[in-house]
């Protein structure tokens, strides 16, 4: 309960991503969201998923965003007059999503509001977990490597496509690399070019 | 959950840069991942966790390619205003 209250900066940071004036601030707020999500996952008892999402989201995605912001001279924000132009449509969409959430979050399965039934719920112990308790890593590995191993290999293919795509997209053909056009190089006639230059040293053939 | 909705709002309201627009997409992916894991814990189902260990893979891949496209756009065009995206037409 205490740490769940401490993880409410995740909501505030999600709000502040939009409103930050400095582009570096608007990267630090998603990093805070990622940290808080990882903390929430540790609270749930999913230690492996917490560390994995911390490493992937903070260590890869946020760092690449930071690199991009540092490399390009992104101008500090314009005046916030643009916000009001987009506010009607986006406000309506936001309200629709918010309204739909109250259909999904049924209070019996997912307790949000503290009713009387939620406060006095039974605490049951799962005795199968005390005989041999599996770690989170073991349960994931039991499924991912045996039954759903195709998903695992497909995700590695997705990463391969991402690597190739990122490299292909950003090779810069016009940098000063000394390349040779092979056909042109073969079509030069050495006799004509060299003999012309040696016969007439004074620039007159 | 709520972070997802905040991310959608972040995309809709934030038309300044393409870069700042793509950051709530990442946070949305993380939030949906979190809701996958929470539901899999509370419903005692292992499918949520095995899917939720593959979602960050896709998230990292698409953020890498999205940032590469952003780099090229900045190199070609020189600015990162979103209003100048309709120069692609024609």
Automatic annotation (TrEMBL), chain A:
InterPro entries: NADH_UbQ/plastoQ_OxRdtase_su6, Nuo/plastoQ_OxRdtase_6_NuoJ. One of its GO terms (cellular component) is mitochondrial membrane. PANTHER family: NADH-UBIQUINONE OXIDOREDUCTASE CHAIN 6. This is NADH-ubiquinone oxidoreductase chain 6. It is an enzyme of class 7 (translocase). It catalyses: a ubiquinone + NADH + 5 H(+)(in) = a ubiquinol + NAD(+) + 4 H(+)(out). It comes from the Eukaryota. It is a multi-pass membrane protein. The chain crosses the membrane at residues 48-74, 86-105, 145-169. It is found in: Mitochondrion membrane. Belongs to the complex I subunit 6 family. It holds the Pfam family Oxidored_q3. Its EC number is 7.1.1.2. Core subunit of the mitochondrial membrane respiratory chain NADH dehydrogenase (Complex I) that is believed to belong to the minimal assembly required for catalysis. Complex I functions in the transfer of electrons from NADH to the respiratory chain. The immediate electron acceptor for the enzyme is believed to be ubiquinone. GO terms for molecular function: NADH dehydrogenase (ubiquinone) activity. The keyword NAD applies. Keywords: Electron transport, Membrane, Mitochondrion, NAD, Respiratory chain, Translocase, Transmembrane, Transmembrane helix, Transport, Ubiquinone.
From TrEMBL, chain B:
It is found in: Membrane. GO terms for biological process: ATP synthesis coupled electron transport. The keyword Disulfide bond does not apply. Pfam families: Oxidored_q2 (PF00420). Keywords: Membrane, NAD, NADP, Plastid, Plastoquinone, Translocase, Transmembrane, Transmembrane helix, Transport. One of its GO terms (molecular function) is oxidoreductase activity, acting on NAD(P)H. It is a multi-pass membrane protein. The chain crosses the membrane at residues 18-39, 51-74. GO terms for cellular component: NADH dehydrogenase complex; plastid. InterPro entries: NADH_UbQ_OxRdtase_chain4L/K (IPR001133), NUOK/Mnh_C1-like (IPR039428). Belongs to the complex I subunit 4L family. PANTHER family: NADH DEHYDROGENASE SUBUNIT 4L-RELATED (PTHR11434:SF21), NADH-UBIQUINONE OXIDOREDUCTASE SUBUNIT ND4L (PTHR11434). This is NADH-ubiquinone oxidoreductase chain 4L.
